[in-house]
Amino acid sequence: MVKCIVEINSSTVGSTGRIMFMIAETARKHGFTVYTCSAVHGNEKRIESKNHIYIGSKLDKKIHLLLAKKTGYNGCFSHFTTAQFLKKIDKLQPDLIHFHNLHNCYINLPMLFDYVKKKNIPVVWTLHDCWAYTGHCPYYDFVHCNKWMTGCYDCPQTAKYPYSDVDRSKEMFEKKKQWFTGANITLVPPSEWLGNEVKKSFLAEYPVRVINNGIDLDTFRPIQSDFRKKYQIENKFIILGVASSWAPRKGLDVFVKLAEDLPEEYQIVIVGIDEREKNKLPETIISITRTNNQKELAEIYSVADVFVNPTREENFPTTNIEALACGTGVITYRTGGSPEIIDQETGVVVEKDNYDELKQAIFKVKKDGTFSKEKCRNRSMKYSRDERYKEYVELFESILEGR
């Protein structure tokens, strides 16, 4: 009998969207029927497929976002939208539901968790960040906060995503604890770091299975291009930074400082910059707006001499893997699961916010030619999408057999 899986994520794009679809594709190859579900966003290309279900509308989401911002209660609205969605799910009679990102105000969380508890549907929940066990934030390293271990209050990040005008971290911590516990859930953090953090939280009652993120190694591979010629930087040492959005935690300020300090033979290239940020950057930095063209991105990774990831809080960044897959070594701060991706032959780990150590690592890579393209590519094989996401299939099968 064919088993049915429903996957739910806040978006169809970005790393979490790609991961959801890659897992769905892998599960289908192994005989599962899989439906993907997401919120509706104005800037995303609509997916016309009977196997994709949209949750609500753009207006529903805007109303939820506004109410959550004014009240501080994130995920407490969209009652009608969620009721409609759960009716659709009920007709599918899923054997297992796979959660990804549930934040960003598109679904009513108490209704969703009440549904899986009453139906006793097993859930796999991939934790793409830390939001599931905090009273507000997706990450807390940047502000050095450990309140989530015992109970959130006086949140230092109320005005940060998910945006709120009032501090409801204490109330939301208690609500999440009530909603998210007592169900049949297996947690899947992509990094050992997050796996260890979860075990210190109120989600510690659940089994944890670490499954690393994977990428498409056919797309991300060494590719020849005219990038150097196009930007007239044929003889420069290229330092690359890539992010889907350059929040302060991602370390854009580090690249600005490097642009001021490094000699002329170095060239910084930043991908993922929006127009507002672009106008504030030094003219010496080559800034490229966000691209969903993965072939173009692979060409840029391939031409770089080193990929620098000065992120200050992180889970398991696929950008590190993409760089390795294109033959480019990585320098990263010791943050979250970022150091887990590389080894001594393919990267350098620098203590977080130690700018001088980071700069010296760049100098050393240029001087010694530390990383071979072949070793970087070989290291990336560990994160093949086929191998990593097959682990999800094995997990689904083992849970359903146990049931």
TrEMBL record:
PANTHER family: SULFOQUINOVOSYL TRANSFERASE SQD2. This is Glycosyltransferase. It comes from Mediterraneibacter faecis. GO terms for molecular function: hexosyltransferase activity. Keywords: Transferase. Residues 226-375 form the Glycosyl transferase family domain. Residues 21-218 form the Glycosyltransferase subfamily 4-like N-terminal domain. Pfam families: Glyco_transf_4, Glycos_transf_1.
